[in-house]
Amino acid sequence: MSDTPALDAHVRLDTHPRHPSAVVATLTGTDRHIPHAHLSVRGFDHVDERTLVMARIDHEEPYWAERAAHDLTSLNITVAVTPGLREAIDDDWTWANYPYPWCNRQEIRQVSDEAQKIYDDIRHGRLVIHAHAHDPHTIVAVGSYRDGSSVTLHGENHLRTVEQTFETAAEALADFHDQHGEAVRPGPAPSTDVELQAEQARSPLHSPGLTEPEPAEQHPETVPAYAADPADHDTVLDAFVTGHRDWEKWRTWSDDTTHLVHEDQTLRAELVHEAGPRETAWTFAAYETPVSDRMWHLTLTGTTPDPLLQTLLISLSHGDAFDTALGSPVTERTVSSATRPLTDAGWNHTVDGRWIRWENAQGDAGVQFDAFAAQHPSTSATWTLWAGPSIDRPTWAVHASPYTPAPLLATLTENLAHGTGTRTRTKPTAPRAPARPRTTPPGLPQPTTHHSANRTLQRAKP
């Protein structure tokens, strides 16, 4: 047995109340400064003397929190992991359409950890970004470390890598301007949605000394359909059934799923009520006869905007309009017909091997057609409609199988390209000033090393 006495330090690890993957560490005990120091060098950021938060750009916080918990336990520090965080740790999720298919799950985690180190170096001032450019589907940048070396960077969030290293800033800037010319813009690129969410998660969870703020004001604004608020799935389903008597619904015995069936039983839908934002909430399917095999299917994630769900339901309420398309193979004409609204709207059209893509000018919404999957239906979805930071980590996504009717796809792409919806912007009312001044303890120092993700990529590729 170890002769090392137990420390009077207790750590409680829990999920963050405002961030989907961040982890909160709450410290108690007279020796809490010891786990505070250890957590600070393991990716947790100081919030106050009793609280730290880990908010990463790769959504791998549960994995790294568990590693930190093991390290603290070996130091005779009591660590409690809440059931909610334990569930997140045990959740074996995968990245959709990961751009480095030769990497296994652990190698993917290594790549994203290298990107996290670059992000931490930037936000802590160890890496100063001089300029950035858009090239053409992601952000590239050039910067210098405080130790004197300079680098060019490629990608955003969990895919950012060091592209090239230079001895001086002058060499790096000259090469960057040669490569990107008029596209170069001074300073760093605007923060991504993922970076902004992480920054917000690191803000104080509570504000002692402040009075309760007034209720937040809700300001609805008109936005493109792909950027609208997520649908209230239960409300939409109930309204649809009320207005369409030829559809019937029933809930499963476990009460977590509702089935929606057309009276001819050839069009069916399933809604999972507690699906997560990136999990499949809706599955729609069509059959040639009530007892035949499924001809095509289409899925929507939990955060799919209300306009797209409404458009899909309205289209399916006229299901007989698509009977002639059931079982039709995918042809060039099918693809052209399904994406004509995007072409008419001037969306960027690119071909990258097996993938044909259409993206809006901002690059935050798009449609992808997988030519390989169209010929091998069992491999993956042929069509992906998405919006968000990237197709690999979308805010929402719609996936469709090869035989999904072109008229139905065209209806969805029309809504994607030209439709509008409502997004509710919350404008919080500022709280009143505290009665007496408050002081915030300074954050503990962070590690000063930096790494290049290129090494992991080269090592992982066969």
From TrEMBL:
Residues 180-221, 417-462 are annotated as: Disordered. Residues 265-320, 363-421 form the DUF317 domain. InterPro entries: DUF317_SPDY. It holds the Pfam family SPDY. Residues 419-438 have a biased composition (Low complexity). Residues 446-462 have a biased composition (Polar residues). It comes from the Bacteria. This is DUF317 domain-containing protein.
